[in-house]
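So, does this match?
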Amino acid sequence: MGNADYLVQSAILPCVGLGSALTLSGRDCVRCSIAGLESELKKFRQQFEETTDAHEAEVKGLNDQICDLNRQREAALREVAELKVQLKMTEETRDTIRRDLIEANRRIREGE
């Protein structure tokens, strides 16, 4: 027996009583039970839609954060590449100055 069948039977069986025939008041009870179940089903559908909407909004927010983080990552990688180029140029300049200094010191010693 499915959950929906159980809900219907648990709502209707108290209206039937011991006999199998529905009386007029039994029919009214069944109608009220069905109306109550329909109302409950409507409430659950609304909760489901609200939850779905909230999750979709959260997913959109998280996707936006992912895009922002990817942009920041790309910017950081570009900056790292630029800094590596600057470091290489600085090291080359330092090496050139060191060679020039060594050469200048050698000339001074030779001139003494």
Observations:
- Residues 24-111 form the longest helix (88 residues).
- Residues 3-111 form one domain.
- The radius of gyration is 41 Å.
